[in-house]
Amino acid sequence: MLIGERYRVLERLGTGGMATVLLAEDERLGRRVALKRLHLGSGPEVGERFKREAKLGASLSHPNVVGVYDVVTHEDQVVLVMEYVEGRTLAQLLEEGALSPSEVLDLLRPLAEALDHAHRQGVVHRDVKPANILVRNDGTVKLADLGIATGVELTSVTATGTALGTASYMAPEQFEGRRATSAADVYALAAVAFEMLSGRKARTGATPMEVVHRIATEGAPDLQEAWPEAPDETVDVLCRALSSDPDQRPQSAGELVGDLERTLAPALPKPRKVEETQEVEVPRDTAIPTAELAPTSPIEATSDRATEPEPEPAAPETPPPTRGPRPRGSRRGAAVAALIALLAVVIAVVILTRPDGNPGSAAKDSGQPAQARPAASAQPAPARVTRAFYERAAADDYAGAWKLAGPGFRSQLNGYDAFRAQFSTLQSVRFDRLTTTAQAGNRATVAIATKATHTNRVDTCSGNVSLARAGAARPWLIERIGVGC
Question: Could you give the percent of the chain with pLDDT greater than 90?
Fold first, then answer.
């Protein structure tokens, strides 16, 4: 079947109350898309909702929102052409039980960014639930189904007194017929977080009406009843977010997730190396050692700048280093080599802690390679990687900055070309805050506050940077940046 003279249907993906979703091939662009086809006889109101979804979806250009490409008509049916997300819904993931706190936070961060972006555009989703949260096979999270979302410039097209959404995740004001605001989406995200952490819905009942009655008459649910190990502060955060009073809830989805991240810290795996978590503040003027930060994995993009010289071959009796220049000059004995190695460590530590130092000269001046230090301490700290990303981008070293971006962040940036275009106006960045707020195992969070000078503006921003590494011997890479300016 060919729809809209270009979309060839491959298979049916699913059927809902008002539409069927099909997988199709766009024969003009050679890509797979999802077609959301309105059921016959659905009525003009549902058709209006479809058109509104297309308009709102097209207005929300965000890596964590399912994109809407087009609207076509086929046999008097309205068909939405959308981004195809190959993966599973959060509802399907939750069928396997509760998620770990670290998994929950990894999923909530991009969802909060998507919702806050929508709210800044004046759009309220109104139906945030696990079935509308897609997790792509590469881990990218997408918020779907804007069918009942509202925009500030749009009037309601639902019947008077009709509540839209899914009962277990709807805020009390939605049942009362009041206009939903961003606070309703924060409530729904809190209900989703409750279910992810505990493995059961925040509100349950034999029928939707029973669920509605419990929401209207009972206080906020207690997370510890479903998850006894829940930290007390996390319980308080969700109780506030699930309050019947919208003014009592966090002011944004990002604030909610930030509170959860802070209070869930005791439930996260303990950090393996204390000395890495103790380094929380980075001096404003400290330079970043380029050789120390570069990952060992292949690079997807190359720089038009001159590359660093290749290290000299290792001596046969010496193991090859993972980073840093080779030592120059012959070794005159085991005692001399040991003394030089000790001096290299001391010089590196002193220079890295001096605001006016030159970290890149430590190994060169000492004549000893960087691997003379323990492997774990040779890895760049998360805060330094964060700083290096911005500084490299400001210096137009886009390939160097791209090396510090993990798969999740590269997806968030929509690829190398989009990243380069986005940062092309950046001239300099001043860090007023650069603090490693959480580090457990191979994951870390860095809080930042920056003043970024562009060619056409100056931005004052703050937020969190999530980083990860493949192992203790691997470099830290940025997985996601969530900031507001």
Answer: 38
